[in-house]
Amino acid sequence: MGRYEKVLNMLMDYDESIRLAIISNTSGDILWHSKRNDAKLQVPIAETKKALKRESDDWIDRCKTADRAALGRALYHITSFEKTKRVTLPIDAFHLLFISVDNTPMKNTKNKSYGKLVEMGKILSIVDFVNTFE
């Protein structure tokens, strides 16, 4: 099993709220993916491919920004919708990790819930762990 497949498997094992995990190249082409068997995807895969292309272009722009020196390197990007969160992060210079996470509002909260938290520290740790073997 290659490192990209290992990242996908570890992520799917780590968090049941992850519905879909994709590795794409910088052109937005899907190279590897893993979908939870019982997950219903709100967005058709054709639309996800378009989003991957936009995200790839955005990551290229983020790496070129003039204020990068002041802000540091971009680590990840989260887009939150009512029903899902989409997370993208670079795996290396040529590949992105795209994760679709269930964002069903949490129950038993006193105030309005805006969905689940995405534990980026753990996700980044999984990616770093797998990258150490490459």
Structure summarized in a few sentences:
The protein is an alpha+beta fold and 134 residues long.
Key terms:
134 residues, alpha+beta, 5 strands, Beta-Lactamase, single chain, five-stranded antiparallel sheet
Structural overview:
With 134 residues, this protein is of the alpha+beta class. The chain has a single domain (3-129), classed as Beta-Lactamase (2-Layer Sandwich). It is built from 4 helices and 5 strands, in the order H-E-E-H-H-E-E-E-H. Strand 3 (77-80) and strand 4 form a beta hairpin. Helix 1 runs antiparallel to helix 4. The model has no long low-confidence stretch (mean pLDDT 83).
Which sequence of SSEs, written as H and E, runs from N to C?
HEEHHEEEH
By secondary-structure content and strand pairing, the structural class works out as alpha+beta
* Gap between N and C termini: 12 Å
The helix content is 25-40%
How many discrete structural domains?
A: 1
User: Taking strands numbered 1, 2, ... along the chain, how are they ordered across the largest sheet?
Assistant: 2-1-5-4-3
Overall geometric form: globular
Give the CATH topology: Beta-Lactamase
Q: Note the total helix count.
A: 4
Query: Count the strands?
Result: 5
Present the secondary structure layout.
Elements: H1 3-14, E1 18-25, E2 30-35, H2 45-64, H3 68-71, E3 77-80, E4 84-92, E5 95-102, H4 120-131
Antiparallel strand pairs: 1-2, 1-5, 3-4, 4-5
Helix pairs in contact: 1-4
